[in-house]
């Protein structure tokens, strides 16, 4: 058994030295979709975020920009994943004034922020330098809510509506694969990635 394990480690080290890349794919089960209001169309199932943290040191990006809209009295998209160091531009595409604020980043209340209000057509922006989940709110419209998941890696994605996901171009090595879904407990798996695609599924619970 130990010999087989040693051979697997040597094989992985050889793939790493050769610059081989592989991938991770699978499906995240985040539970049933939210119920629709009477007479309304059912809302799409919320998307999950999956990211992989490998052996290489991650250098925060300096110029990557993402956009999150405020339209029809809602944040769009509801879930946005960004790498540490990225800037998010909040664009008010609505006909009323909106606010952008959060009470913590990754549970750290010292990182709470209120970016202020934006009139229709105006933008606010913020560069996220700490990893963690950010629960966005609009103080002017308490029902508005969204999430930004700030991850310390360049290997991340949001799931399809079916819950499926795929991470590509991962150098060979050992990775911690993390899955997050609104209202569910975050899960982490450890996997070895070689030159092929590894399957990692998640079944998240409350």
The amount of beta strand, in percent, is over 45%
Give the name of the CATH architecture of the largest domain.
Sandwich
Low-confidence stretches: 3-18
Task: Report the total helices.
Answer: 1
Report Rg.
Answer: 19 Å
The CATH class of the largest domain: Mainly Beta
* Helix/strand/pairing category: mainly beta
Which percent range fits the helix content?
A: under 10%
CATH topology of the largest domain: Immunoglobulin-like
Q: If you average the pLDDT, what whole number results?
A: 87
What summary fits the major beta sheet?
A: 4 strands, mixed
CATH superfamily of the largest domain: Cupredoxins -  blue copper proteins
The tally of strands reads 17
Total domain count: 2
Structural write-up:
With 206 residues, this protein is mainly beta. It is 8% helix and 48% strand. The chain contains 1 helix and 17 strands. The strands form 5 sheets. Strands 1, 13, 16 and 17 form a 4-stranded mixed sheet that branches. A 4-stranded antiparallel sheet has the order 12-2-14-15. Strands 4-3-6-9 form a 4-stranded mixed sheet, with no helix packed on it. The longest helix has 16 residues, at 2-17. It is globular.
